[in-house]
Amino acid sequence: MRRDRLSARPLVRLVIAGTCAALMPAASALVDDAALLAQMKALSRRIEQLELRNAELERKLAGTAPAAVAEGAVEARIRALEDARASDERALASERLSSTEPELVTRLKAVEYQTLSMQQQARTVSALEGITIGASLTGMTQWAGRGDTASGKAQSRANYRGDVAVTLPGGEMGTMSGKIFTHLRFGQGNGIGLRPSYTSTPNTTTFEVAGVNDPDSSFAILAQAWYQLDVPLPFGGFAPASKQRLELNVGKIDPFVFFDQNAIADDETVRFTNNVFVHNPLLDSGGDLGADEYGFTPGARLSYVDERNAGWSWSASLGVFASDRGANFSGDFDEPLVIGQLETTARLFDGRTGSYRLYAWRNGRSHDFDGAAARHGGLGFSIDQKILDTVTVFARYGHELDGRTAFDDAFTVGTEIAGDSWGHAADALGLAFGWLDTGTAWRRATADTTLVGYGAQDAEKVAEIYYRYHFNNRVELTPQFQWIEQAGGDSEAGPLQIVGLRAKVGF
Q: Is 2.40.160.180 the CATH number for 130-506?
């Protein structure tokens, strides 16, 4: 229909032209020639516009003519897309990668695997957050001449000891936070056996499981396992800004971790190895601590820490620990060791850090020198102070107030000098002296020489020197020499001399 109307266009034009020709004589009577000419031009423009519009409509109709053919092509493309989609779905349904899969699917699976791997790593990192692990292996070799040993023969002994410590997050309760500390220890070797002396051992690094009676056996023990709760003060305050806190520890503990500490005289694997320079001699060598054979005991400790003044912080601590058979869980927990300590950290000597500790103890299950159970008590202090950038000094004192002990006063002093002065900043030179005064009761008991074969009338004097060589960031080598004079208070005995070499690997 529309094509018929459009094809009548020439006829329309003839009709219009004829009409115009017929009207022209009449129109000439009404208007002049100029007006007629203007009307003819306007009519001509209208006709041209109609022709252009008709041509545009014809082009559009021509474009829709092959609709049936185009519909078939569209259906073919749709089927191809549906087949491709089905193939992708089959490939995505399997987690395996295949060379026959579409490239897009292969790349998508690769991205998924990478994302899953990153998520797994993130979960692992999140699970390990707050966990710290420390481990060290220490080996020691010492030599003593025949005049220095209990057997009367020259001895050389080697030993090793391993320590693994793990700290875990202990949860949070409001502003309070906790941590869990565990410590495993293993080793072999008991060291050389000296003539009687007040020091319990010249080699505090020794460790061997007791009761096995088999030197070939080496076992690990759970040395420490305790929980610490930190309580910021004041209660309900903003914890990160808190400068005061309470610390509560409960579990199996080495009491020397929290009492009688010292910056340069408390770690036998790094500095001095003679026991009188590692802890207060009355508590450790003298036995007033009352811990198990390895120096550990169940107990609890409460401490208040005030750090509001950065240049002069202080703390007060109280500890209660099982003693004697209670320390190894084979007896009651009554009559425990009770120890209290006041500590301050100050900046003296042109702002250099130092720590000053004063403490007192009472052990209801200690033992006199004859083995009888008795209450012991005493007091002491432990000081370490950096006096130069490369020089740190220490002093430690203990006095027995109650109990019959072989020595009742102990005083030790020493220093450690960093190697900056001779171009080895990571090295260090250590030197210490000790004085252990024979107790009054022990003097009387040994006066006739029948008890131990001599009369203990004088003070035992101990000296130790070492040089710690920093081999690399994991290994340290430390040659050392010890001198013990008037061992056991025997003024007629010759000096004891011990030469040693320590090696430590730490992580």
A: yes
